[in-house]
Amino acid sequence: MTPTENSPENMNNQTSPDTQARPHPSDFTPHPPVDLPRIQAAVREILLAVGEDPDREGLLNTPDRVARMYAELFAGLRQDPRQHTQKAFHENYDEIVLLKDIPFYSICEHHLLPFVGHAHVGYLPRGQVIGVSKLARIVSAFARRPQMQERLTTQIAEFLMAEMNARGVAVVLQATHTCMTIRGAQRPGAAMVTSAMLGIFRKDARSRAEVLSLLKS
Ligand code: ZN
After folding, report:
1. Which of 78, 84, 89, 151 has the fewest CB neighbours in a 10 Å radius?
2. Annotation says 108 is catalytic
3. Catalytic pick from 40, 84, 108, 163?
4. How far is the CA of 20 from the centre of ligand 1 (A)?
5. What pTM does this model have?
6. Is residue 45, in this structure, part of any structural domain at all?
7. Are 215 and 100 in contact (CB under 8 A)?
8. What are phi and psi of 128, to 5 degrees?
9. Is 121 domain-assigned?
């Protein structure tokens, strides 16, 4: 921050953190390209730190493999999800559109371990729809980032609500977190379920019941 920005007359114009508007759900700024050599060096450090020999045969190519793996797992940091809503078409369809059991793979940002599961995404259109495969691509774009399941759920729902101008959006995610199953609490099979209901699905109990029954059927 430059001194001018910090001057007393400008201080009053600054928004306090509480009142600062959240970024628009479809705002997207691509992150810089993945720095593969930097990941390689870091992985080598981890191997040394756990007492391994990074130069033994089996580990020689591991830093490179892990670097390319992270580039793939975090590809969503450089993919604008709006590319999947650009081909929305006008259609006077006013019933729920629902795609169930979309497999997704994400990385828990607290442990950098995968959480894996299924997403169910539904929306009530307001004059425009997108190809159903796009819903799966939107889930994937948000999943391939360092994530929390709760935030992933909200991001998908708010993005669709904003981009599709939908009357309502319902997103349910069900996932197994390896940070819970292979370490820590070690609860194999435990699934975490999160949901986000927006628009009519939040406001209207009958619409919510309808989408929930479709999700369960
Ligand atoms: Zn975790």
Report:
1. 89
2. yes
3. 108
4. 29
5. 0.85
6. yes
7. yes
8. -140, 145
9. yes
Of 84, 149, 163, 210, catalytic: 149
- Do both 193 and 104 map to the same domain? yes
Of 83, 86, 110, 150, the active-site residue reads 110
Same-domain status, 129 and 44? no
Q: What are the residue ranges of helices labelled H in 15-147?
A: 36-49, 62-73, 132-143
Task: List pLDDT tens digits, range 61-80.
Answer: 999 999 999 999 999 999 99
Active site residue 163: no
Residue 178 lies in a domain: yes
83 among known catalytic residues: no
Round to whole Å and give the CA distance between 158 and 143.
14
CA 149 to ligand 1 center in whole angstroms: 10
Does one domain contain both 120 and 55? no
Strands (E), the chain: 89-90, 97-108, 113-124, 128-129, 146-147, 168-177, 192-199
Provide the domain count of the chain: 2
What CA–CA distance (Å, rounded) separates 168 from 177?
Answer: 28
- Residue 186 and residue 108 in one domain: yes
User: Which pLDDT tens digit goes with each residue over 127-149?
Assistant: 999 988 999 999 999 999 999 99
Output the CA 122–ligand 1 centroid distance in Å.
27
Q: Give the CATH number for residue 170.
A: 3.30.1130.10
CA of 106 to the centre of ligand 1 (A): 11
Domain span including residue 51? 36-73
